[in-house]
């Protein structure tokens, strides 16, 4: 859903929001200075609340933005006052030479924060290359610290790789390392208590995220984070298939390939809804949460 939806939003947000220059300010006065970038819809885990066992047919290669295309959007966003970038997926570390993209994004003038959300499984191998390329910090998904439960929830994940990844991230100087714990129908009280205790013993920040459900619009504010706080939302998202999305819980998306980065940014800003409703056009692993 792209251009046509734009015209209906125009009536809601006329004037400065469509400005050609200056910061991206939406129709509700929110300054959008944070861009989340999904670089792939693929993942090396099969978390029960996110994917089916057999996984989902990935997007064809040519549908996925190249690193140069992603950097072009990020540069255009930085020219419009975006200061913070977060790399997400699917699982971003499964994309080959991801450190190349990190280096391109870290070199952009005006970007003061470059973060990544990862499941940590490949972090032990890549942490120092990511840090050397300019990554500042990581959020690692940890829904339980019990090895058997971890394998159950992720359908086969090895928790030792996750812990080794967290250690490698800290040794590489990525700071802070934060934990994202999704509380889902599969979570047990001891899963959540275990993550809390682990975070305390390791002196790591942990954010508890109640499971979101895009099609039904079920979501709540992230404990310890900024997500789900619509009145103060400063986010735009770039999906792995090149749509600039003003809101996670909306079907609005503006193609950077069709419109160009600047125009897609302008339209996404103008079209940003006051609050999220639901999203039926994209699954979470294609938007990156
Ligand atoms: S639902 Fe939309 S407006 Fe609300 S916090 Fe999420 S992205 Fe922002």
Task: Report the end-to-end length measured between terminal Cα atoms.
Answer: 19 Å
Unreliable stretches: 1-16
CATH class reads Alpha Beta
What integer value in Å does the Rg equal? 18 Å
Residue fraction in strands: 5-15%
Secondary-structure element order, as H and E?
Answer: HEHEHEHEHHEHEEEEHHH
Class from secondary-structure proportions: alpha/beta
Percent helix: 25-40%
Number of E-state strands = 9
Q: Count of helices?
A: 10
Mean pLDDT: 92
CATH superfamily: Aldolase class I
| CATH architecture verdict | Alpha-Beta Barrel
* List of distinct ligands in this structure: iron/sulfur cluster
Profile the largest sheet. 9 strands, mixed
- Mass-distribution shape: globular
Whole-number count of domains: 1
Kindly identify the CATH topology.
Answer: TIM Barrel
Arrangement of strands in the largest sheet: 6-5-4-3-2-1-7-8-9
């Amino acid at each position: 859903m792209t251009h046509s939806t734009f015209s209906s939003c125009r009536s809601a947000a006329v004037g400065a929001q469509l400005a050609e220059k200056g910061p991206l300010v939406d129709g509700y006065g929110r300054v959008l200075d944070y861009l989340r970038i999904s670089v792939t819809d693929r993942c090396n885990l099969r978390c029960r609340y996110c994917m089916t066992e057999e996984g989902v047919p990935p997007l064809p290669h040519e549908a996925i933005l190249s690193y140069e295309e992603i950097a072009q959007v990020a540069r255009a966003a930085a020219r419009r006052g975006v200061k913070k970038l977060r790399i997400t997926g699917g699982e971003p570390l499964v994309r080959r030479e991801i450190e190349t993209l990190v280096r391109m994004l870290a070199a952009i003038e005006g970007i003061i924060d470059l973060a990544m959300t990862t499941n940590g499984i490949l972090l032990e191998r890549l942490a120092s290359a990511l840090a050397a390329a300019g990554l500042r910090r990581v959020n690692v998904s940890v829904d339980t610290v019990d090895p058997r439960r971890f394998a159950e929830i992720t359908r086969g994940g090895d928790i030792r790789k996750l812990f080794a990844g967290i250690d490698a991230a800290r040794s590489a100087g990525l700071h802070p390392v934060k934990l994202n714990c999704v509380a889902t129908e599969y979570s047990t009280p001891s899963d959540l208590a275990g993550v809390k205790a682990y975070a305390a013993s390791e002196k790591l920040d942990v954010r508890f995220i109640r499971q979101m459900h895009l099609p039904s619009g079920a979501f709540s504010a992230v404990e310890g984070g900024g997500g789900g706080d619509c009145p103060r939302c400063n986010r735009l998202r770039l999906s792995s298939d090149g749509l600039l999305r003003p809101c996670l819980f909306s079907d609005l998306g503006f193609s950077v390939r069709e419109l160009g980065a600047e125009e897609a940014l302008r339209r996404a800003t103008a079209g940003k809804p006051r609050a999220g409703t639901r999203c039926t056009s994209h699954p979470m692993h294609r938007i990156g949460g």
